[in-house]
Amino acid sequence: MESKLIDLRSDTVTRPSPGMRRAMAEAKVGDDVYGEDPTVNELEELCAEVTGKESALFVPSGSMANLIAQMIYVRRGDEVIIGAGSHCYRYEVGAGAAIAGAQYVVIEGNGTFTAQDVQDRIRTATFHRPGTALVWIENTHNFGGGIIFPFDEIKRISNVCKERGIPMHMDGARIFNAVVATGIEIKKWCQFFDSLSFCFSKGLGAPVGSILCGTRGMKEEGKRFRKMLGGGMRQAGILAAAAIYALKNNIERLAEDHANAKYLAENLSDVKQVKIDMKTVQTNIVMADLEGINADTFVKEIAKEGVLVNAISSKRVRFVTHLDVSKDDISQACAIIRKVLH
Q1: Assign residue 320 a region: left if phi > 0, alpha if psi is -120 to 50, beta otherwise?
Q2: Any residues with CB less than 8 A from the CB of 246 and at least 6 apart, and which?
Q3: Lower Cβ count inside 10 Å, N or C end of the chain?
Q4: Residue 11: inside a domain, yes or no?
Q5: CB-based contacts of 44: which residues, under 8 Å, 6+ apart?
Q6: Helices vs strands, H then E, count in the chain
Q7: Phi, psi for 9 (deg, rounded to 5)
Q8: What is the mean pLDDT of residues 332-341?
């Protein structure tokens, strides 16, 4: 019997559960480009209600949701204030610059920042220089190791943005991880933002899709940009059904992923070649710095033993827990890592 691969590369590798597959198979469908898919419409209404926004737009990916948001807010050459390592800047093939025309003002650090940081970087456009069009917050922060953007700091940043007339967008691909970890309900996180996106195909376990939430006007403009980018989908209710199932069944269980991430980090804490800052292990991502072995080499060696992880740099690897990985899997993965690094 072939041994099971323990895939800790990302929470995007999850596969639909039997219940989710049944929901997909039974979904009522129509042509969503015409606005006639009842299951997509149900999903969009649900997401608008859950986040406290006027409307929502179902899109194929988080990267598309992020790009559409930038296309709505940004004129070519405008500045977007972001935290270091933000997904829109690091992992979306430069789409914000190439297509939306955004320039990024990056606040160095772990991906989070303060209201004063924002205040210091807001610029008014002149004949010679670009102005600030948008403040962008990623929560939780992928490259920061799944850390949660402090709620009270978001509130302070919101106050600054309101005073200066600058909209705020949240890349909330993993916002429900923050919800579960803090106990702060989703509407409270969303109240500070003009718009936000979140992903169904990460910890929530759906195969495809993200949502962009905001005003009704934003949805109408976003639909046009979605079409422009090739994201108009026809009988997309099959995918929307998976997203609805995820929202109704897979949020509270994220606590298991968080517990498994902490268990992994604690289990490796006495391995001298592995350095983990436990303060950053707040949700389902663990960043580990390696000593005495190159990250690519480490990744290849543990893959031979059935454990998959991603190298982030020459000395850093990322582990991500999710619904297809159990505590026993984590124990086995840690044993393999110890064996490789003995």
Answers
A1: beta
A2: 20, 200, 204, 205, 206
A3: N
A4: no
A5: 55, 56, 57, 58, 211
A6: 14, 13
A7: -70, -40
A8: 96
Same domain, 259 and 232: no
pLDDT of 238 strictly over 60: yes
Q: How far apart are CA 204 and CA 248, in angstroms?
A: 10
Can the peptide bond before residue 140 be classed as cis, meaning omega within 30 degrees of 0? yes
| The length of the chain, given as a count of residues | 342
Measured distance CA(172)–CA(228) in Å, rounded: 23
State yes or no: pLDDT of 2 exceeds 60. no
Q: Please name the amino acid found at residue 138.
A: E
Assigned domain for 5 exists:
no
Look at residue 325 and tell me if it is in a domain: yes
Is the predicted pLDDT of residue 1 greater than 60, yes or no?
A: no
Is 162:191 a contact under the CB 8 Å cutoff? no
Output the furthest CA–CA distance in the chain (Å, rounded): 69
Task: Indicate the average pLDDT of the chain.
Answer: 97
Q: Which amino acid makes up residue 165?
A: G
Average pLDDT over residues 195-210: 98
Provide φ and ψ at 188, rounded to 5°: -70, -40
Distance, in Å, from the CA atom of 242 to the CA atom of 24, rounded to the nearest integer, reads 6
- Which position has the token pair 């606590």? 255
